[in-house]
Amino acid sequence: MNNQHKSQVRIHGILSNTHRQAARVALSFDFPFYGHDLRQIIIATGGFIYMGEITHRMLTATQYIAPLMANFDPSFSKNSTVKYSDNGNLFVVQWDKVRLKDREAAGPFTFQAVLHKNGTIVFNYRDIPLPVEEINSTEHPLKVGLSDAFMGYLPASQLSDTKQRTIYEYHRVEIDTTKIVSGSAFEFTPLPTCLQHTSCDLCLTSNLTTSCGWCNTLQRCSDGIDRHRQEWLDYSCPEEAKGTCEDYNTVLPEASVSSFNHSSPGPTLSSAVLEEQPVTRGEFLQMENTAIIAGVVAALVLLVALTLLAVYYINTHPTVAPPFYLMQRRTNNYWPSMKFRNQGCHSSYAEVELGGHEKEGFIEAEHCC
Q1: How big, in percent rounded to 5, are the helix, strand and coil portions of the chain?
Q2: Taking every annotated instance into account, which residue ranges of this chain make up the domain PSI (predicted)?
Q3: How far apart are alpha carbons 185 and 164 in whole angstroms?
Q4: What's this model's pTM, rounded to 2 decimal places?
Q5: Helices (H) and strands (E) in the chain, counts
């Protein structure tokens, strides 16, 4: 980044002068992460990017892109900065000359995470003054790699009326930390996912993906293990995905087509109706338009009625929690789950939020400690 023009690189004034802070940044393009197109990310001082949609103080748990997640403190030195660049095709975050908290004498670390528009992710390491395996993880998690998860609410228990938000990590990629040295780099190439298919035919016949199923209700292709897992279950998509595309395609009878083709030989259903009640082509089209308008009006009336019924139900049952189903992991017999609880400041992050003091175009929030 030192070779780029200053106008192309932005130094984040808050992250460069704080410890255990995270700030939201908008991308200029949709970045595909595990098949989900994201436009906003959260950069943390601790050497990682949080990719989740639901923010919380324990951003280190999962849903991250971590070139080197550790207890870095950019506020220790004026030379330590967190900077980023976005040229429309790739987004680069650089932790520049950052030092470890309480191990500042070990020297400055400089490394990058590069997000390409096509989903490719690159980790670049310029200066690694200390073997990564020697970094203490007691006060802060030490992770290198990628992770994603889906979230949901468990129903309120008999002991508590409060719903518990739970996260289920469904995939993780870990890098061998012994291979991280000065001048090294790692590239992650995204694999095709079921979510990229936008039709039933592609979903079930593509050679790029496996185990995909089509949920016609949601108009979505999925293997059931992604961020939309809860919605996939709520709409009974596992059962619906057992069908074939022919189950969802509306097959018109031959009569519907041949009624507009007067040269077609042989009797048809439509032609039989025309023989019993002769009408002109103009009258036939007028009747057809009237039927369509009547159908649209009926659908709108039904939609309004359902909306009013839903509002009434919500107002009269404010404590009802949506169901959350327990699942089994495809490769293991368990799901590593974590509940968002305050476990002390050493494991939490404070996001830069509105209501603080402005500094270099960013909003500054209080320290979590």
Answers
A1: 25, 30, 45
A2: 193-238
A3: 39
A4: 0.70
A5: 6, 18
